[in-house]
Amino acid sequence: MNNEQSKNVLKEKSYAFALRIIKAYKYLVKEHGEYVLSKQLLRCGTAIGALVREAEYAQSKADFVNKMSIALKEANETEYWVLLLQDSEYITTAISKSVLKDCRELLRLLVSSINTAKKNMNKNH
Questions:
Q1: pLDDT tens digits, residue range 19-63?
Q2: CB 52, CB 43: distance < 8 Å
Q3: I need a labelling partner for 53 at 20 to 30 A (CA). Which of 37, 63, 66, 117 fits?
């Protein structure tokens, strides 16, 4: 898979993940009346895809790496909130495992994309 294909995969998967997070937010609010943790999850879980989209039109390789690095931080934070929601019994272990699987896939894709961009930056210097 070339770099352009991996960017499209990341773009599609981060968008699908954001939709999943929105559904989780709606569920937590409607079924549990939970507004604090779910709002944190909503913010960081949807930010991943937004940052990936921002990176598409980065002003430079360094700007691209920066935006993708922020997306990586948001994905890591999303993982934290999912674990917290699981351990506080707002979501089941089965739901948590499924969401975490997708989140960790995004983490791997982001790390790979950042590492590739950094290698390409180093080749040009």
A1: 999 999 999 999 999 999 999 999 999 999 999 999 999 999 999
A2: no
A3: 37
For residue 59, the 8-state DSSP code is S
The residue ranges of every structural domain in the chain are 3-123
CATH number (1.10.10.10, 1.20.1440.60, 3.30.450.20, 1.20.120.450) of 3-123 reads 1.20.1440.60
For residues 19 and 49, is the Cβ–Cβ distance under 8 A? no
**How many CB atoms within 10 Å of residue 80?**
13
Position 72: which residue type? L
Between CA 125 and CA 118 the distance in angstroms is 11
User: For residue 88, how many other CB atoms are within 10 A of its CB?
Assistant: 10
* CA within 13 Å, CB half, 35: 1
Q: Say what the pTM is.
A: 0.92
Statement: residue 1 has pLDDT above 60: no
Confidence of residue 85 (pLDDT cuts 50, 70, 90): very high
